[in-house]
Specification:
alpha/beta; five-stranded parallel β-sheet; four-stranded mixed β-sheet; 6 helices; elongated
């Protein structure tokens, strides 16, 4: 079950450190937010790529194992840019305050991120698809917009408000610090 990614890298048959060397080279050509799929057969690649991603400030989304092949998913991030982005949408709610609320939990992360763990019952509409899928949302309900860090959800909440949705809340700090129950689409 392959997940959606922007770029694929075949590192099958390569041993450490080559999957990381090739990943680094490809990541340099990606823009922030794009997802890289690294296909590897080296059993150590999961720990290696997860540690490398964290060290470099990228998001290691997760790994799917199919037969002898590991499919690793990494989102390119610029940590300085992410920290500098001002959270400007005024209506916010803390992660812990979401429990027990009625309304729609709208997850605007990419499908791969959503599949590896999301708020139970959340609706997935990646931020890049949101404007074209507004008809899937009920403007009369409260909408709690969530992403990994609060940055994409901030932009999505602002977009919804600009389109006439009045009951919109940005969930902070987002899935990156979510400590409650999650659902997964993959094991």
């Amino acid at each position: 079950m392959a997940m959606k990614s922007d770029v694929q890298l075949n590192a099958q048959g390569l041993a450490c450190p080559m999957p990381i060397v090739r990943t680094k080279k490809v990541m340099n050509d990606l823009v922030d937010g794009q997802v890289l799929e690294v296909q590897a057969t080296d059993k150590g690649s999961k720990a290696d790529l997860a540690a490398w991603s964290k060290k470099m400030g990228h998001q290691f989304i997760g790994t799917i194992e199919e037969g002898d092949v590991f499919y690793h998913y990494i989102r390119k991030c610029n940590p300085e840019k992410a920290e500098a982005t001002e959270k400007s949408f005024e209506q916010t709610i803390a992660n812990g305050e979401l429990e027990g609320r009625t309304g729609i939990v709208l997850d605007v992360r990419e499908a791969a991120e959503f599949a590896f763990g999301h708020v139970p019952g959340a609706k997935s509409i990646p931020f890049g698809e949101l404007e074209g899928r507004l008809n899937e949302l009920d403007a009369s309900q409260e909408i709690y917009v969530i992403c990994r860090t609060g940055t994409r959800s901030d932009m999505a909440a602002q977009m919804l408000a600009d389109k006439g949705f009045a009951k919109v809340f940005n969930v902070l700090p987002g899935m990156g610090e979510w400590n409650s129950e999650i659902e997964k689409e993959v094991n």
